[in-house]
Design goal:
Helices cover about 35% and strands about 20% of the residues. The protein is α/β, with parallel strands linked by helices and about 290 residues long. It has two domains: about 5-185, HUPs (Rossmann fold); about 200-290, Pantoate-beta-alanine ligase, C-terminal domain (Pantoate--beta-alanine Ligase, Chain: A,domain 2, 2-Layer Sandwich), CATH 3.30.1300. A seven-stranded mixed β-sheet has the order 1-2-5-4-3-6-7, with helices on both faces. The protein has a three-stranded antiparallel β-sheet with strand order 8-9-10, with helices on one face. Helix 6 (about 135-150) crosses helix 7 (about 165-175). The longest helix is centred in the middle third of the chain and has 16 residues, at about 135-150. The structure holds pantoate. Pantoate (PAF) binds near residues 40, 41 and 70.
């Protein structure tokens, strides 16, 4: 099989591995007058991703999903090597969810030898996650910019669980004049409130039992500040509670302006509560809006 040709698995999902083959598909769809949505992923697909694919299907006639575990967004001591990878299982889920194209490039297709360019979004990308994972958002912004320019979709869909990532992507798209509509999907949760994440698979049984307290805590912090409690006090109370139930290092419980991620001045400006904390070797993140009135 030539490198650029599409392979079609069950359910009509074609798989391509080169930018040239991706663009050929997109050109074909455009020639038929069809609109295109892209859903960037790192694979290990769960119901949260599948909800984004369903949302993408509402946004456009054709849905392309990219699967690329992006090395530039992992720090040297992070989980790049053990990040779950199962392309065949992911492709089956995508076919069942009605995606049309899987773009699964190899490393050198995205980062050919000699590549140097990086996309950095200061301020938004330096706060919170940026403090604890230096370089993370430069890796995300770089690969997302590349994926958008590779596929040139009408819309691209991202989950709200990675709220700061969503803000960084909206900023880079606006600042770099990339002609794409960014669409946000709701966070999908387990019945006990735990946000779905590929990294939940790392949790031991005891850790999995504790994990939902993360969401419960930020909901309480959000309700407290909505009813006038001082943001710092509410953050501290949230941090204490997480420590008491067994979270190890708590990177942050933060009440922030939902648009700038700076300090929140209170209503009518929308607020957001964001958290990152460790259970054993697993780092979990989550966020909720501050209820408004
Ligand atoms: O959210 C993710 O899975 C990744 O950060 C993304 C957007 C696919 C970029 O690698």
């Amino acid at each position: 099989m030539a490198a650029g040709r599409a392979m079609t698995g069950g359910g009509g999902l074609a798989t391509v591995r080169t930018v040239e083959a991706l663009r050929q598909h997109v050109r074909g769809w455009r020639g038929e007058g069809r609109s295109v949505a892209l859903v960037p992923t790192m694979g290990a697909l769960h119901e949260g991703h599948l909800s984004l694919i369903r949302l993408a299907r509402e946004q456009a006639d054709r849905v392309c999903v990219s699967l690329f575990v992006n090395p530039t967004q992992f720090g040297p001591n992070e989980d790049f090597d053990r990040y779950p990878r199962d392309e065949a299982a992911d492709a089956a889920k995508l076919a069942a969810a009605g995606a049309h194209l899987l773009f699964a490039p190899g490393l050198s297709e995205v980062y050919p030898p000699g590549h140097l360019a990086r996309v950095h979004v200061p301020v938004l990308g330096d706060a919170l996650e940026g403090t604890f994972r230096p370089g993370f958002f430069t890796g995300v912004a770089t690969v997302v910019t590349k994926l958008l320019l590779m596929a040139l979709p009408d819309a691209a869909v991202f989950g709200s669980k990675d709220y700061q990532q969503l803000l960084v992507i909206r900023r880079l798209v606006a600042d770099l004049d990339i002609p794409v509509r960014i669409v946000a999907g709701e966070t999908v949760r387990e019945a006990d409130g735990l946000a779905l994440s590929s990294r939940n698979a790392y949790l031991a049984e005891t850790e999995r039992r504790i994990a939902p307290v993360l969401h419960a805590t930020i909901v309480d912090v959000a309700e407290a500040v909505a009813t006038g409690r001082n943001a710092r006090e509410a953050e501290n109370a949230g941090t204490r509670r997480l420590g008491e139930v067994g979270f190890g290092k708590i990177d942050y419980v933060a009440v922030r302006d939902a648009e700038t991620l700076g300090d929140w001045d209170g209503p009518p400006q929308p607020g957001r509560v964001l958290v990152a904390a460790w259970l054993g070797r697993t780092r979990l993140i989550d966020n909720v809006p501050v209820p408004s009135g």
